[in-house]
Amino acid sequence: MSVIAHIESLSLGYSEEPLFSGLSLDIYEGMMLAVVGANGTGKSTFVKTVLGLHDPKIGTIHWPKGRPDEIGYLAQLSEFDRRFPIRVRDLAAMGAWKGFNPFSGLNAAARKKVDQALDQAGVLDLAERPLHTLSGGQLQRTLFARVIMQDAPLIILDEPFAAVDQNTEQHLLKIIDGWKKEKRAVLLVVHDLSAVLDHCSHALLLGNGAASFGTVSDVLSHDRLVAQGYMSASQASWIFRKTTEQQAAHV
Amino acid sequence: MFDFIVDMFSYAFMQRALVVTTVLSASVAPVGTFLVLRRLSLAGEAMAHAITPGVVIGFVTAGLSVMSLLFGGLIAGVGVAVLTAYLARNTILRSDASLASLYLISLAVGIFILSAAGSAVPLKSFLFGSILGVDDATMALVGGVATITLCAFAVMLRPLIMSTCDPVFFESQMKRPWIVDQGFMFLLVLNLLAAFKTLGTLMAVGLMILPATSARYWSGTITAQLGFGFLFALLSCWIGLLLSYVLPETPTGPSIVLVAGVIFGFSAVFGPLGLRSQFKAVRHT
């Protein structure tokens, strides 16, 4: 697998006390990395640092083949102006704005591409709707269509399931699985551990000043989740009991 | 009525005022639309006050010329914008509080210097504008600013839309996202200076904000809002000029902004996204 980004001895934080330090990991094609941790442990800061919006406190991010021209990005919904007067199709088209003629509207080919992305995200029938009429789930699907339009080798999703129902979450997870098959790397900030266990290959657990990286089964162990302050011992026991029961039921 | 209008525009100063306000409407409409969409309506008002000391110092040292107004205003406006961004980034104050502090100081300095210098220009004309002040140089300034503004919008419309709608996503897409933010602030200062002579420092931003906020009630797309914004600005200018001509004691700035205010009131009630449609929606539920 070809390495997209090589992260070396990374420390992040806003004050003298780092959120975590000494994190080294490779992001490679087809990798699906879940970033997990309690609130305020640096999940969004980490993905924004990979994106280039923050500078690392200490450490480096090296791009062996050069930083990709396009990095797919879906920020938290709270950072988005939902009253902005724009239609669904135009918002999705923003994902490929660099390739469009700045002095004209969408041509037929670009429009077809946008419609395909909207269709894949399940919101083609809403293409002409203004943004402020959408529900949280419909808006998130539209933003997924924008990520599809970006056609990027590395995709970063910051809490994409925070305001969506179960059906929408399942639909979006299918799209993410499709990206994995296309050998795109996905960084997924997420709180839903069952989604992590079912869909992600690797996990980065942040909390209590530490960063643990490895395969999902290695990192998301009962003891680590408790030690890094993600959940209490009783919560962790309950989650793992439920997960074991569900897996047994599937078999 | 026709004779009255022909008579009114037989005066050279009215012809100039008509041309200048028409061109000005085309220039300030897109700036106003994005000021409102970027939630900077009050920042625009503050910036209008912030350019005052630069304009006054330029006037006191070099007289009431367009160049002194332009350079003085640009230095003061850009200075306040940069200092605001610096304070917001490096101290506990947010940008709104930083800007409010700086524009108040700036406005006080401007009025203080103007009064202390015993200016020959009446304060009223300075604050509220005068159509008599529209000379060739002012026309050239307004024409130049409108050309720069419309060309800049043609190039940066998409980035501006993206940075307004989803600033974090935009930041992730651009190597130098600040160019669009600062470029927009520069256009704002330029347009305030262009509007300064006709509308005065206190009313200049009125022609930007009110047509833009009115346009919000009429359409859900940016393109239509830009169109409505221009139309409302144009109507405000033409009817405002007429009022100012009929009632010679009223300065043009407040006349124009008052008409814009009436259009705003009408839009807020009768626009498709205004109060009446809200009441209808409530009745049907």
Please supply descriptive tags for the structure shown above.
heterodimer, A: 251 residues, alpha/beta, Rossmann fold, 2 domains, six-stranded mixed sheet, 9 strands, 38% helix, B: 285 residues, mainly alpha, ABC transporter involved in vitamin B12 uptake, BtuC, 14 helices
Structure description:
The complex is a heterodimer of chains A (251) and B (285). With 251 residues, chain A is an alpha/beta fold. Chain A has 2 domains: 1-68 and 153-220, Rossmann fold, CATH 3.40.50; 88-151, no CATH class. Helix content of chain A is 38%, strand content 22%. Chain A has 9 helices and 9 strands. Chain A has helices at residues 43-51, 88-93, 108-121, 136-150, 166-181, 193-199, 216-219, 222-227, 233-250; strands at 3-12, 20-28, 32-37, 58-62, 71-74, 154-158, 185-189, 202-207, 210-215. In chain A, the strands form 2 sheets. Chain A has a 6-stranded mixed sheet with strand order 5-6-7-3-8-9, with helices on both faces. The longest helix of chain A has 18 residues, at 233-250. Chain A is globular. Chain B has 285 residues and is mostly helical. Chain B has one domain: Orthogonal Bundle (ABC transporter involved in vitamin B12 uptake, BtuC), CATH 1.10.3470. The A-B interface holds A 51-53, 71, 73, 75, 79-81, 84-87, 91, 94, 97-98, 100, 102-103, 130, 132, 146 and B 37, 154-155, 157-159, 161-162, 164-169, 171-173, 216, 219-222, 225.
Sheet of most strands of chain A: 6 strands, mixed
Query: What percentage of residues of chain A falls in helices of 4 or more residues?
Result: 25-40%
What is the CATH topology descriptor of chain B?
A: ABC transporter involved in vitamin B12 uptake, BtuC
How many β-strands of chain B, per DSSP? 0
> What fold name stands as the CATH topology of the largest domain in chain A?
Rossmann fold
Helix content of chain B: over 70%
Poorly predicted parts of chain B: none
- Summed up, the domain count of chain A is 2
- Contiguous helical run count of chain A: 9
- Beta-strand percent range of chain A: 15-25%
Number of domains of chain B: 1
User: pLDDT below 50 for ≥5 consecutive residues: which ranges of chain A?
Assistant: none
**For this structure, what is the CATH class of chain B?**
Mainly Alpha
Share in β-strands of chain B: under 5%
- Provide the gyration radius of chain B in Å: 19 Å
**Oligomeric form:** heterodimer
The biggest sheet of chain B, with number of strands, parallel, antiparallel or mixed sense and barrel status, is: none
Overall geometric form of chain B: globular
- Secondary structure class of chain A reads alpha/beta
